[in-house]
Structures are given as structure tokens and as C-alpha cells.
Amino acid sequence: MEIKQTERRSEERNITALYYSVEFSIKELSYIYQFKLRDISQKGMCIVVKENSPVLQHIKINDLLDMKYYSVETADKTDTIITKIKHITKHAHGRFQGHSLVGLKILNKDKDN
What we know:
Thrombin, subunit H; globular; 7% helix
């Protein structure tokens, strides 16, 4: 007999089927950062950021960022979406040793390009 588990996360897992990466800038930093979207955490969609990245010094839980999401369909299709930082989890071991998982939650789809 198969037991079906209820999805407990607020963000659906299939968002990574629509988008492969996100791009954003931080006002205090002069670079645009791009990260591959991951669906590896039980807490939902995230990006993996090196622990020594300046990004981690300028974001915190509950921050809202305008992120550009790149479509898996075609490289020139993007959506700008208001995204909330849900968690920042340091990984001390395993595959992502030396990195932090930054959990993302889509709040509002602002515009299509």
C-alpha cells in the first residue's frame, strides 16, 4: 500500500521546471549575480551561495528582492518576480560544504519580458 505524503511547503516544487536560474543585484554591490535554481531542500526552492560571497553579507531573512527568472523554454524569456528570502542555511558538510542554501519564495510576478 502506497502512502501519499502531503506537500508541507508553501512554494510548489515545480517552479524549477519553469525556470533554471535567477539573476539579481544588490544596491550596495556593483555586480549582478546569477544563480542556478535548486529544488534540493525540504524547505523549498533555493539557490546555493558560497559562504565567502558578498551576497550573504547583504541579504537577510524576509528581504524582498526583484529577481529575474530565466525560463527553461528559451534563454531570452525572463520574468521579473518579487521574491522573499525565506531562510539562509549554512551547510557544514556534504555536497554543499562551504556554501549556504538561500531559500526563496515567489511573492508576485511583476512583469514578463
